[in-house]
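## retry 2 of 3
previous attempt timed out at serialization; input unchanged, resubmitting
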Amino acid sequence: MAMSTPSSPRGGRRPRGALEREILTCLAAADGPLTPSQVLVSLNGDLAYTTVMTTLSRLHDKGVLRRELVGRAYTYSLTADPEGAHSIAVAQRMRRLLETGGDRAGVLAHFIADLAPEDEQLLVDLIEDSRPAGRRDDDESPLTGPGAGHP
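## retry succeeded, writing output
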């Protein structure tokens, strides 16, 4: 039995990830944390309550949303601004994909090989910025190893 994608307000099926984006937009526009019922109303109520609740729970599991028990219901809010929340979700997806492959080094090598030069430099800079001072030699590129002579 195939899983179906929730319908969009305009009929048909939502593109993959569209409901998550709609919920993130809804929470970003809110003045404070929202319950699943409030999110459902904000989305014009065309979804099942359980669909909204499941999506909120998944976004929380991904680290995109903060959840707090208020009375008998959870309220949800973004852990970062909408763009940051989207970045967190995409990074989580990338990690899951990396974990499904058997050859992590091969997967990462192919990923790096396909990067545009400016994205490769951005990745190098991010890796260097995330490491404590003195953790690697100055001649060592974080992507290619010692003495690789990477430009």
